[in-house]
Design brief:
The complex is a heterodimer. By secondary structure, chain A is mostly beta strands. Chain A has strands spanning 5-7, 10-13, 19-24, 31-37, 44-50, 53-56, 65-68, 75-79, 88-95, 105-106, 110-114. In chain A, a hairpin with a 2-residue loop joins strand 5 (44-50) and strand 6. By secondary structure, chain B is mostly beta strands. Helices cover 0% and strands 53% of the residues of chain B. Chain B has strands at 4-6, 10-14, 19-25, 32-38, 45-51, 56-58, 62-67, 72-77, 86-93, 103-104, 108-113. In chain B, a hairpin with a 4-residue loop joins strand 7 and strand 8 (72-77). Chain B starts with a strand and ends with a strand. Classes of the chains: A mainly beta, B mainly beta. The interface between A and B is medium-sized, with 28 and 26 residues.
Chain lengths: 115, 114
């Protein structure tokens, strides 16, 4: 069974440009999460989808970040325009319906560098 | 407020030793605690979890201890191996499906030398 996959694995963009990160959750997982870790900081929650609906987006830092999950399958996280402080690793995770946390599976992350 | 912190940023041990990684938390409302292991270039990998109605749980070579009185969580790794070298994160949340967010600590780097 394929795990959570993320694309691109690494991205280097200039300040002011746009980047779109993609996450393909494990097939059949209703819950999809985005987290990020900026340099020297802890991993922080961004938002949570249940199927195509945003269940909780309290962690989104500002309106430069837009997440979508069309059709309740894969999700995209767009940063527009990117700023230097957006550099870090963005993790996607998924879990089946319901929530015991031990079934949250993380992807390997998309490493973003804004220069 | 919600925060999870770590006492030691880096822990160096010899192969075969037992390792203990500590974590303090401040939100007494959380009822679910998890340890994750993150190897270089990979995402966090679930190790073990514990609910607030327990104070100890054992897995394969790992034990998690929870002290709710002092809001302290620890991960013990027995007979540490070089493959255990990674960053370890504690995280806290809720066992209820109504809540979805995990709050992570900053991470502790475990270095195992042969």
């Amino acid at each position: 069974e394929a795990g959570v996959t993320q694309f691109p694995s690494h991205s280097v963009i200039e300040k002011g440009q746009t980047v779109t990160l993609r996450c393909d959750p494990i097939s059949g997982h209703d819950n999809l999460y985005w987290y990020r870790r900026v340099m020297g900081k802890e991993i922080k929650f961004l938002l949570h989808f249940v199927k195509e609906s945003k269940q909780d987006e309290s962690g989104m830092p500002n309106n430069r970040f837009l997440a979508e999950r069309t059709g309740g399958t894969y999700s995209t996280l767009k940063v527009q325009p990117a700023e230097l402080e957006d550099s870090g690793v963005y993790f996607c995770a998924s879990s089946p319906r319901g929530y015991p946390g031990n079934t949250i599976y993380f992807g390997e992350g998309s490493w973003l560098t804004v220069v | 407020g919600e925060s999870v912190g770590l006492h030691l940023p880096t822990l160096s041990v010899q192969e075969g030793d037992n390792s203990i990684i500590n974590c303090a938390y401040s939100n007494s409302a959380s009822d679910y605690f998890i340890w994750y292991k993150q190897e270089s270039g990979k995402g966090p990998q679930f190790i073990i979890d514990i609910r607030s109605n327990m104070d100890k749980r054992q897995g394969q070579r790992v034990t998690v201890l929870l002290n709710k009185t002092v809001k302290h969580l620890s991960l013990q790794i027995a007979a540490t191996q070089p493959g255990d070298s990674a960053v370890y994160f504690c995280a806290m949340g809720w066992a209820s499906p109504r809540y979805s967010t995990l709050t992570f600590g900053k991470g502790t780097m475990l270095l195992v030398s042969p």
